[in-house]
Amino acid sequence: MSGSRSRAKRIGFASDHAGLRLKAALMEHAAGRGLETVDYGAYCEDKVDYNGFAERASRAVVSGEADAAVLICGTGLGMSITANKIRGVRCAAVGDPYTARMAKSHNNANALALGGRVLGVGLAKMIMDEWLDAPFEERHQARLDQIAELEARERRS
Ligand code: RB5
């Protein structure tokens, strides 16, 4: 065995006020699984816009500071729409474990958006676990390359 050990996966978490409580529960669950967690805000229940928090966590994924991100607002929609504006982010707004698994195995989603006003904690944990544990199936890579090419074309237009 070489001297260097691979570090634990680092998951960035972000929420607005509507996702704050679910975020806390999921961060605890992720830490219990041995994952490193980073909280990109929000940090209190005051009403806030989700956009800046989604952007911070998404940029952390693109820069490599985080391996993946979990983004939580009331529905998961504002977070996912914002995250998907950041080049290189593939964010899936998910409400069930099957879609969570597919989001990784077919779409290699590097961000997961959840609805804090939609999901119970138990279901949300199950969804996050499915997404974290599923392997990406390489046969889908060509489609992801096409998404990246579309992003590049959009930047030029
Ligand atoms: C906040 O009221 C709510 O709009 C937000 O959390 C999110 O659901 C937006 O998509």
What's the number of extended β-strand segments?
A: 5
Tell me, what is the CATH class? Alpha Beta
Estimate the helix proportion, in percent: 40-55%
| Computed structural class | alpha/beta
Following the backbone from N to C, one meets helices and strands in this order, namely EHEHEHEHEHH
Please state the second-level CATH architecture: 3-Layer(aba) Sandwich
Largest sheet: 5 strands, parallel
Question: At the third CATH level, what is the topology name?
Answer: Ribose 5-phosphate Isomerase B, Chain: A
* Envelope shape: globular
User: Residue-averaged pLDDT, rounded?
Assistant: 95
Distance between the termini: 49 Å
Strand content: 15-25%
Please tell me how large the radius of gyration is. 15 Å
Q: Count of helical segments? A: 6
Cofactors and ligands: D-ribose
Description:
There is one protein chain. With 157 residues, the chain is an alpha/beta fold. It has a single domain, classed as Ribose 5-phosphate Isomerase B, Chain: A (3-Layer(aba) Sandwich). 45% of the residues lie in helices and 15% in strands. The chain has a five-stranded parallel β-sheet with strand order 2-1-3-5-4, with helices on both faces. The structure holds D-ribose. The site of D-ribose has 8 residues, from helix 3.
